[in-house]
Structures are given as C-alpha cells and as structure tokens.
Amino acid sequence: MLIQLNIKNFALIEEMTIDFSEGFNILSGETGAGKSIMIDAIDFVLGGKFSKSLIRTGKERTYVEALFTIENDSIKKILEELDIEYDDIVIVSRESHQNGKNLIKINGKSFITSQLRKLGCKLLDIHGQHQNADLLQRATHIVQLDDFIGESIYDIIKKFTFEKEKLLEVQDKIKRIEGNEDREKLLDYLKFQIEDIEKAKLKENEEEDLKEEYNILANAEKINNALLSAHNLLNNNEEFTVINSLSKVLHELSSIENHFEKIKSNKESIEGAFYTLEECSREIRDMAEEIVFDNDALEKVNSRIYEINQYKKKYAPSIPEILEYHEKIKREYDEIINSEKIIKELKEKELIIINKMKEISLKLHEIRSKKAKELQENILSELKFVGLEKSRMEIRVEIKDNFNERGFDEVTFFISTNPGEPLMPLEKVLSGGELSRIMLALKCVFAEKDKIPTLIFDEIDTGISGAVAQRVGEKMYQLSNTHQIICITHLPQIAVLSDYHYFVMKKVNNNKTFTEIKVLLKEEKEIEISKMLSGDEVTEATLNNVREMIKLSDLKKIEIKINK
C-alpha cells in the first residue's frame, strides 16, 4: 500500500508530501490544478517514461520518493530476487536531471529502470486512458482467465511445462545433429584428433614418472659419486669405516657379556644397527652400479616430455584432461556416424512428447472453455452495474497450431459496449472512460485473487453521471475493502463515498505557478463536494443536499461491508 509520496520540482509541483491511507482515497480539484501530475509522479517513481518537460521550469532536477508497506509474498519475492533488505516498508526513489542522469534507489540501493519496473508492477497499478496497455494485450487474457480458475489449472499447466521443456531439449538435439552441414569435414577432423591422441599412447601418471627419470639421468654423475662415497664410508674393507668400527665394538662387548649381564641389551641394539647398516651398504652399492650417465636415455626422456607438452598445447592442460577430451570426441564421432539412427529415435520421442502435450492441453482447453462462460457472465454483470448495461461480451478460447507457455490455447476477450456494434477484441475499445470502467469491472471480479495492493483510477468518470456515477463509486468502494484505491474524479456521486478526500489546488505567486494538496476535513469535504455539484456558489441548500448524500453514502458503505 502507498503510504507516502514526496515530490520535488516535478512539473507544477515545487515540493509536496502526501500521506495516503488505506481504503478509498479521492483526489479532486479544478481542471489544470495538477491532479494528473501526481499520478504522473507516481508513474515516474515506479519506472515510467521520463521527459525533461517533467522537471519544473528553472530547475536542474526532479525527485520523487514513494513509501509502500509490503503487503504480500509476490512483493517479497521480487525484493529477494533483487537482493534488497526489507522490514515492513519499501522506499523507492527516482531522481532525473536535465543532462539525462537518472538515479534510482530501492531501500537505499541503486538499480536500473527495468529492475524498478519489475518491482513497481507488483506494488501499484494505474488505470487510465494511457495506462491500460496491459489489459489490451491478448497475451494477458489467458492469464486473467487462468487466475480466475485458480490453482487447479496451474497444477495442470505445471505438467504441460514439464513436457514442453523435455520437447525443447529433444528438438535442440535434433537441430544440432541435422543442422551440421559440414558433417564430413567434422568427421574427418574428429577422426584425425582421435587417432592423433591414440598414437601418443599417453598414460595417466606418465608425466610425473618422466620428470623423476629426467631428474636422475640429468644428475647421474653427481648421484653416482655420492652413493659410492657413502658406501666407502660405511664399508670398504679399510680399518676405520662405520661397519668395521661397529664390528669391533660388538667383538669387545661379546667378550664381557657373560660377566656383565647389563650390557646385553646395548649389545643387541648395536648388533641390530650393524646388520641394518650392512644391508643399506649393499643397497647403496647396487644403486651406484645401476646409475650411470646415459646421454641417449636422457635425450629419449627429453623428447617424450616435449611430445607430451605439444599435446597439452593442442588439446588440454594435462594428460588426464587430454584423455577425457579423447573420450568426449569419440562419443561425438559415434553420434554423428549413427546420426540417422539417433535422429529417428529422437523424432519418435518428440512425437510422444507432443502427443502428451496435446493431451494435457486438451484438458486445459476443456476447463478454460467451461470457466470462460462463467467469467464472461460475471464481467457482464459488473459492466451493467457501472453503466455499460448494453454491453455484450464473449471470451473465446481457441486451440492454435503452435503452443505457448500455457498450452495450445489462445484466449481473447471480445466486447461490444453499444447496441448494433459487432463484438470486437478488447484492444479495439478506444474510449478511456469505457476502458477504465471495464478494468473496474474486471478488478471487481478478480478482487479476491488480485495481488496488487494499490489501484489508481484516472478518467474513471469520463462520460458518466447521475446513477451510473453512483454505481461506479459504489464499485470502487467495494474494491477498496480488498485494495487501496486512489481515484481522480470530478463527480460528487463518487466523492461522497470516499474515506479520505484530497483537494488539489493551483496557486500563482510571483508569476510562478504552484500545485498544492490538502486532506479535507469533514466541513471542507462538504464544501468541495457542493462546488462539484453546483459550481463556486455554495448555498445552504446545496450543503444540506451534500450532507444528505454523504449520509446515504455512509449507509451504502455499511451495506457493502456487510455484504462483502
């Protein structure tokens, strides 16, 4: 719900703050005072088109800020999608400059116009001669009918969507296989790559093994010398080597072990070390004999490493990835070779899915056709109540050759508002007043399901008066029990039903024009409605008449609430 609007330097408005309330809010005032400017400001702050003419003359920028309470989950979902933190209120602001600079913020975070519109359409709906474009689009008619039907049809639509996604996936595969005009060239190319990789006989851990072998061969002389030196230090039959020294130690300890029991454990430890060192000495000697510098072997290893690096440049950064790529292109090669068989299988699958989609769509069509009659009767009833009693309406549900997001159906609202005129698609209704009343009728039918919390009606009273105007007012008041309604009107029959009445006035000060607004108190409301009824001359008789109208409207409001 819109709770506050702050406007600066917007058209005739220099600076204005308006607090709105729930229920039925009326805006009235003299022609040209700026009532529609406020609607334009609301449209602007929610992502509407911007023109430099909207900036107040002599100013560099315009700024509009709107505060909304968060009413439903659809608004919360958009806020979460846009990663906006929120509590109970969302603050939307838009600032535009003469140089074209545009600054949009939602709860203090910057966004672009398309993101603002995505949120704006969930917060508020404006209905007037220029803002009913969505209603005119045939694509929305199926949505409105489905919303009227409710969850039961959406469960079936989910099944259709599941099959549709399967179909698109299958058709994409067929397109990729059939659309390959250079089939032979691709086969030759894939075959060359497959054979090239297989020729290399790559092994998964080969690179690590080669690096280790290269390291040994490149440092063979150094390794050999170190091993021989180590062996000589351990055991080379000379008197002072580690093993000879340990042998002498063991000899000395053996000579006393029968006389000195405590030495036995030490002798055993040294004996273990002696045999371990002897084994190590033999292994070091064997390794020294094996490692010799071999230039041919080094060249061979070098050549293999170079070859592998070339394959890594051609195919993938590592041997495992090259082998994985090899498997992938083998599968692709096999698919193309067997494409006729695969396409045949895919087309059989495609036909099965299409038949399933048609079966589901037929269920959707039957439900829609049945419910369309009920919906058109409900809408006609509402249209007659708001003064379009000669209207005829037909909701046509036609099965088309091509499917859309909701099946194979196309839904079109046809209407005739005058006797003798043929039924025409809703987009042919050009009268702003008629269109607003049609939207009001639709909104009344969909009131329980409609998730948009705030509805603004402009030009709703075009071409109506008297009893019809009273009925339009009653319908809007009825709608205000489930939505916040903001309505611009010139008609007293509508104004008397308001919960809050705002008066818009134009003032001239120092040759500058200003638009101001105020909430009317009880007596002020009576005077304003009297002027709407009989002009600037307000008599006691007119005031009494208005008071009686307000009294009767209060009774009517109670009746509407009771019958809600």
From TrEMBL:
Keywords: ATP-binding, DNA damage, DNA repair, Nucleotide-binding. Gene3D superfamilies: P-loop containing nucleotide triphosphate hydrolases. One of its GO terms (biological process) is DNA recombination. CDD domains: ABC_RecN (cd03241). One of its GO terms (cellular component) is bacterial nucleoid. GO terms for molecular function: ATP binding. Residues 2-506 form the RecF/RecN/SMC N-terminal domain. SUPFAM superfamilies: P-loop containing nucleoside triphosphate hydrolases. May be involved in recombinational repair of damaged DNA. Belongs to the RecN family. This is DNA repair protein RecN. The gene is recN.
